[in-house]
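Now for today's protein.

===
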Amino acid sequence: MPAVSRLSVNVNAVAMLRNRRDLPWPSVTGLAAIAMEAGAKGITVHPRPDERHIRKADVFDLAELIEERFPNKELCLEGYPSPDFLRLVEEARPEQVLFVPDDPDQTTSDHGWDFSKDTGQLETAIAASREWAVTVSLFCDPDPAAPEHAARVGAERIEIYTGPYGACHDDPGKALKELGRVAATAEAAHAAGLGVNAGHDLTVENIPALLARAPFIREMSIGHGFTADALIYGFAESVNRFRSAMGEI
């Protein structure tokens, strides 16, 4: 029996390319379908308020695609828990929501929650999401103290920000140090009973070392690195390449 995939393909970059023209291609749903047919666990999107890449309409199209054609796959919505975003979660009912502490103008998510001041807002958003039967994950810095706080406010999973690890692609010594921080955070989350996800600047080159240190990571959300790989190899083959790096095929 084939291994259950850890790979959730983030298609924000597909939408960003599409939005350069008033045309329906490249198709967000079409490429998402190719990724899932090839074995990806699901699809991740981050619909920002200005819709500079993923649009609200894309969210509903992807939810419909998964419901009708891929009922064993998952849609993960990533976003800041504003009233508008929470309404979108309630209406779309994804399998998972990842709350990130992003300013609307940020280019990408680049830091985890500050649990010393954000707990009230998170508790409210988490309680609402769980009423809608949506699994909640919180974006955390690679800090072994973070998972305990995430569990305390009611999260079921965390996603560890792996950007600092990915940024060390040309510095093996520094990469090893950052890998240690990620692994320690994953171990703390596992000990706290949380599911462990990881995401940001993960590639076929740096994934094997990560999983060797933290084999219980259950999901990796990959967008930029996956899309760069797919420009060379194609969406379906890049799914194979990433799943191979994860030791699944």
The CA atoms of residues 102 and 108 lie 8 Å apart. The longest helix spans residues 172-191. The two ends are 11 Å apart (CA to CA).
